[in-house]
Amino acid sequence: MVKSPEDQDFEAAFTLQYKTEYGFLLENRKLLVDDVRVRAVGSGSKIEKKRIQKLEQVVKPETRTKVYFENLGWFDTPVYLLSALGAGAKIDGPSLIIDNTSTIVVEDKCVANITENGDIRIEVGEQAASPIGTELDSIQLSVFANRFMSIAEQMGRTLQRTSISANIKERLDFSCALFGPDGGLVANAPHLPVHLGAMQEAVRWQMNHLGREWKEGEVIVSNHPSAGGSHLPDFTVITPVFHKDKKTGESSPVFYVASRGHHADIGGISPGSMPPFSRSLVEEGACIKSFKLVRDGTFQEKGITDLLMAPGLIDLGPSYVGPKISGTRNLKDNLSDLKAQVAANNKGIHLVSELIEHYGLEVVQAYMLHVQNNAEEAVREMLVEVSNAYSLGEIGSLEALDYMDDGTPIKLKLTIDRKKRTAEFDFAGSGLEVLGNINAPKAVTYSAVIYCLRCLVKRTIPLNQGCLNPITVKIPENSILSPSDTAAVVGGNVLTSQRVTDVILQAFRACGDSQGCMNNFTFGDSTMGYYETIAGGAGATAKFDGANAVQVHMTNTRITDVEILERKYPVLLREFSIREGSGGAGEKRGGNGVVRELEFLKDNFNAGILSERRVFEPKGMNGGENGLKGENLLLKKNGQVVNLTAKNSVTVQTGDRVRIITPGGGGFGAK
């Protein structure tokens, strides 16, 4: 909404407000006046203020307590009761004034005056400049850690508010984060772990690829696995934060902000762009290594539209016998959500700039390093504790092995050097690249490693690059965890990532396996595509039962509310319930999976399921029993029941139903 400007130039006012909010303008667009609002102000019945008794004696504090002030440090601060203060009382800062429902802080060099009606009027004095330096202070470390996280959280709220797709607005399938001048992760909001560890690889790839060609105000979009992507539906939008050097007058990037959102359709061989049977990357949708989404302050709508529709123009020649490849089926949603991602980044830029303006660039970047160093130290402490807990040698190893449903092994040898306080994650022995889509880009494995490390440390720290500083990761080339550029990867991000996470936590002996899957369900036709992930059981730990019906580990999304689902799509949700008894028994039981059944209200609709743990059960830990494996069923209108197995695509008719039964988590300890 644009308030009436003094010069009555509504177009200029709207343009300025739009540019401030989104960071770009749209070319050749006419303005639409949606509505006109008139506000009127009137006076109602007056409330008479009561006078309070005048203070006749010098007021004394009720007590004193230690309070931390930014310019004073810890200070022995007087505390006054508001009810004991009469009219005319003056309270010098620093002090506290409290009553039954509130606490008022009177800062240093300020004076609180009690009026004749009992109100408090504070005279603000001049504050000395902040003495915060670049040296580490434990209080400021906590303050900056939370400030950095808050930037990512506010970016996320902007993205959710300005997006339109159910996938981002309702399911919250997105992540936002802040990165340092070297592209290393500084802080993130509590979004999707599978995104967050991988995003710094995307930022660094663009930095190396573009170099000085990346100008201020330019926004990059990318989704290619070889450019730090996870899988093609995850579009990463990256914007540098430029800062002008006061001495040289030159601007350069001092931080980067990025948002990654899952787009429900970007083309490919099946609606929802999560094809169960893709064998090459080109079948999975639009591939973008690097494109300037915003250039010269303008959103490049035609350019990104051409890229999103490009899969439908690919000619694979007469030898190709696979399904027809389509361009995006949800172009409007794609464009709107990309604009929302740019807006989220723009919010991040404003917040980082405010932080720099308040503290100075040198202090902000110093505490960026302090936050990362704190995370590094927390991981080093945890590694030593694990080494001692399992009576390893000075250099000792833990191992774990698990399998994908097709028999492909995921193997880890975890070697901890207690003296150096470092660890090596060696995935040698993991399976070869597969002719299917469960291959996972390297960035996905890094995401799993950094996520597990963050789960295991005992300090409260933001997940950041510091967690990986004491870690070496070895991944064999041409394996399922480091496939070729053309390999299909859509399932690696959502399935293999979960198995890698289970294997890492098995090696640390931290918990039973989770459901090990995201139960990716898609449906649609040539006009639309829908995608969701479905909850299951979490593995139990030594202290806690596993959670029931939860989006475990690498996902952390929501599921679309039934009201939104049934209003926007031709389906009915027939059942969504906890699958009782599916969690593994043990001293601590594994979490239960769920049962989700949808009925279709449209003929010739394509439905697809991409899942795991339909062959191998989630393992228990330390004598705990395995969780139950999952099952996918097609319930035809004529009464026939068909097992869809773990990965399948089927054409459904009105009245047909798909019933997805998700795995439980493994138990912990013998019962």
Outline of this structure?
By secondary structure, this protein is of the alpha+beta class.
Would you kindly provide a written description of the structure presented here, covering whatever features stand out?
This protein is 25% helix and 24% strand. It has helices spanning 10-22, 138-162, 166-169, 193-210, 301-309, 331-359, 361-389, 442-456, 492-507, 562-568, and strands at residues 63-69, 73-81, 90-92, 95-98, 103-106, 111-114, 120-123, 174-179, 185-188, 219-222, 234-244, 251-262, 291-295, 298-299, 395-403, 409-417, 422-426, 471-474, 520-525, 528-532, 571-579, 593-600, 605-610, 631-635, 641-643, 647-652, 657-661. With 671 residues, it is α+β, with helices and mostly antiparallel strands. The model has no long low-confidence stretch (mean pLDDT 92). The protein contains ten helices and 27 strands. The protein is globular and about 90 Å long. The longest helix has 29 residues, at 331-359. Strands 9-8-12-11-10-13-14 form a seven-stranded antiparallel sheet.
List the helices and strands and how they pair.
Elements: H1 10-22, E1 63-69, E2 73-81, E3 90-92, E4 95-98, E5 103-106, E6 111-114, E7 120-123, H2 138-162, H3 166-169, E8 174-179, E9 185-188, H4 193-210, E10 219-222, E11 234-244, E12 251-262, E13 291-295, E14 298-299, H5 301-309, H6 331-359, H7 361-389, E15 395-403, E16 409-417, E17 422-426, H8 442-456, E18 471-474, H9 492-507, E19 520-525, E20 528-532, H10 562-568, E21 571-579, E22 593-600, E23 605-610, E24 631-635, E25 641-643, E26 647-652, E27 657-661
Helix pairs in contact: 2-6, 2-7, 4-8, 6-7, 8-9
